[in-house]
Amino acid sequence: MKSFPVGELKSHFSEVLEYVKNGEKVGILFGKNKKTIAMIVPVPQKTDSKRKIGILDGKVKISFAKDFSISEEEFLSI
Questions:
Q1: How far apart are CA 34 and CA 43, in angstroms?
Q2: Among 24, 32, 45, 59, which residue carries the largest CB count within 10 Å?
Q3: CATH T-level topology, domain 2-40
Q4: 3-state SS of 42-62?
Q5: Contacts (Cβ under 8 Å, ≥6 apart) of 28
Q6: Nearest to 26 by CA among 16, 15, 18
């Protein structure tokens, strides 16, 4: 990860955007100690792939209230 102090960030902003465009994260340093206070990260690109079914299989538990009931026809019409 590249990091730039605020002053350098201003003068090299086009360069910073190129790093981000290429998928890198860029830290913004501030203060005497040059602490990272923020990051510029690339926006995730949408993919045309469909969402995987069953991605949470075995990771979550679903339970219904005892008084909950719905017929298959009602479920399919939702």
A1: 25
A2: 24
A3: YefM-like fold (3.40.1620)
A4: CCCCCCCCCCCCCCCCCCCCC
A5: 3, 4, 6, 9, 36, 37, 38, 39, 40
A6: 16
φ and ψ of 27, to 5 deg: -90, 150
Region 2-10 average pLDDT: 92
pTM over 0.90: no
Total length of the chain: 78
Under 8 Å between Cβ of 40 and 13: no
Each domain of the chain, given as residue ranges in start order, spans 2-40
